[in-house]
Amino acid sequence: MNMEEFRKQAVELLRQGKPLTGKDGVMTPLIKQVLEASLEGEMDAHLSESKQVRKNRRNGRTRKNLKSSWGAFEISTPRDRESSFTPQTVEKRQIHLPGDLEEKILGLYGLGMSYRDMQSHIQEMYGVSISEGAINSITDRVIPLIKEWQNRILERIYAVIWLDAMHFKVREDGQVRTKAIYTVLGINMKGNKEVLGLYLGDHESATFWLQVLNDLQQRGVEDILIACIDNLRGFSEAIENIFPKTEVQLCIVHQIRNSLKYIPWNKHREFIKDLKEVYQASTLESALHQLDLLEEKWGKQYPMVIKSWRTNWERLSVYFKYPQPIRKIIYTTNTVEGYHRMVRKVTKSKGAFTSDMAILKLVYLATVNFEKRWKNTVHNWPSIFNYLSLYFEDRINLNDTV
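Structure (tokenized):
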């Protein structure tokens, strides 16, 4: 069975409720295949070395039972006529996989370690030599899990979502291209933070975001109270097309960055000081007054900057209608950008990825590690939820908080 056939079969078995582990586990055949392939490679290398000084050849196979964190299963180990073959992947008389090797490899991969560094680490810690092909086969076993995770059913309603993209280099058709990972990060009605989805596209566009939003709807999302985004052209309209009741908040920080592109660097400090009076105002009326003052002072010098704030003001100023605990989490996309910074720490040593799936494997495993730290609810969630219940009382169902 080739890898593609295995992926399809594994996904189907998972949907049927088959276990991941144990003798009949979904992943057991793949682990068995990887171990046997590594043993065969070791035998080939051994015979190649021994033929230089004496004749030696294969002499059938023996079977042995192995135990691991995935359960017990049988593998086939090659033999040579002189009985001089001493395998390292699974040693003679060994009945347990050393230190749950496959879990260790996945853990190291999820931390962003290179194949070469993983090989050195496994050799040093466990005295086991493992090929890049074997490592790749082990990491490939998460592919069915990624597919299952990407298609999982989501909750009916989310309090806040942040949508943003990060970019990676990938080798494709002999060239290095830039690909975008579209990220949807959300807070559910229990106050728990989770990554709702990761989507790979050629470049960031409102059209692709529309596909992402359609996918969220197909997976069970009926309503989103507030969506926080950057000012990509057509993005707000894409959200409102799928979720018409959702309030869209444009990121203030993105707007500031865009403004500073058109202002000389020696004017930045003075301009930002005046701009703070706008976005840090206590009320919408006060913010509008400060925006008028900003235009009086800077409008003639930088009319395009002021025009941009005026044009986007309706969606830039959404957060003013809410109390401070809600304002703090929605007026920027810092939450999803913080997640992206964590991902980049893991991927920064990779350079260009070998394939789209190589990107998804690493980002998915990193995300699984991050979400373990997010088990606690959002800070001050009871207060935030009470405010949301007042502003959106006709859309929040108490069953959504159970």
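The CA atoms of residues 175 and 390 lie 54 Å apart. The chain has 16 helices and eight strands.
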